[in-house]
Design brief:
322 residues; globular; four-stranded mixed β-sheet
Length: 322
């Protein structure tokens, strides 16, 4: 409930900032020309929202599979979707070697869940089920629509900033208004930066929320923690050039492959027997342990679409009931 409240509060803050910016411009300058840029920004975001399923499928080399081709995968997804109370998503295999999974689509009825070739060779059945539960929860929470709504705010701020600074320099207005226009444009650009950080914060909230959702539909927290741990190690071993190919899509993944090399050292605090997995006892020990997250990692988290993995696993520990 607290995660949900934080997301609602974030949406309110973002759109409140946008409304205040437009109101200030409208009061000072009449704002009619600015509306054109607002409409343009909204149109671009909506176009991205409509086209995103096709673009993701293309960029991630997704091959959709039938129940006959992948009976076990279909069975897991069908059971989890039933537990979550949503329609069974379309299922695909992404033809990339980076071990991961992702969900996307415009609505619950248009949703797709995909796993990569790499993850299928990596996880146990229980770990895979926990990861699929995480992705099912993204669909249940309508994350695609939420992130699209959030990303609208920095997009509008950017268009307003560019339009005002352009008008200030080349718009042919009186000299006494040129500096004022540029000043408002700089303020809008500052809001663009701030709201981008808030959208990243919203993305991190939704990852925590999906972790919790996976547990709620019957997956043990230590199986998801162990899957995340395995993914970090496997992603860290993936050649950098392979990771770079999916840089623009990493917000869809269960974890951020580009951060994996930095997260390995921290995660050694959890795997006490160095088995390469996290069992129930190890996760239980994390619940009350003092974990250390370096200053650099805290700063990197602010600019990341995913939470710091050590903090994320400790939160999973708080969901463990026995």
């Amino acid at each position: 409930m607290w995660l949900q409240m934080r997301m609602y509060l974030l949406i309110g803050v973002l759109f409140g900032l946008l409304f205040a910016l437009i109101l200030a411009i409208g009061t000072a300058l009449g704002g009619t020309s600015v509306i054109v840029y607002v409409v343009l920004a909204v149109g671009m975001v909506l176009l991205q929202y409509l086209l995103s399923p096709y673009l993701v499928s293309l960029m991630m080399k997704v091959k959709y599979v039938s129940e006959k081709e992948e009976p076990e995968l279909h069975r897991m997804v069908a059971e989890l979707a039933q537990e979550a109370g949503i329609p069974k998503p379309r299922i695909g295999i992404a033809q990339i070697q980076i071990p991961n999974a992702f969900a996307f689509g415009r609505t619950r009825h248009d949703a797709r869940i995909c796993v990569t070739e790499g993850i299928r060779k990596l996880l146990s059945k229980d770990e895979m089920r926990a990861v699929l539960g995480h992705e099912i929860s993204h669909i249940k929470h309508r994350d695609m629509a939420v992130i699209t709504a959030l990303s609208l705010v920095p997009s509008v701020c950017y268009f307003i900033a560019m339009s005002l600074m352009w008008s200030g320099m080349f718009g042919g207005r009186r000299r006494d208004s040129t500096g004022y226009l540029a000043l408002i444009g700089i303020g809008a650009f500052l809001l663009y930066f701030i709201t981008n950080l808030l959208v990243l914060y919203g993305s991190r909230i939704r990852e925590y929320y999906a972790d919790e959702g996976s547990v709620k539909i019957g997956n043990k927290p230590h199986f998801l923690a162990s899957a995340l741990y395995r993914l970090v190690y496997a992603n860290a071993r993936t050649p950098k050039e392979e990771v770079r190919k999916t840089e623009g899509m990493k917000a869809f993944f269960v974890n951020d492959p580009s951060q994996a090399r930095n997260e390995i050292m921290e995660l050694k605090q959890i795997d006490r027997d160095m088995s390469g997995t996290i069992d129930a006892d190890e996760l239980r020990a994390v619940r009350s342990a003092k974990i250390h997250v370096g200053t650099a990692d805290k700063m990197m988290e602010i600019l990341s679409t995913h939470p710091n993995m050590l903090k994320r696993i400790q939160r999973l520990a708080s969901l463990q009931t026995s």
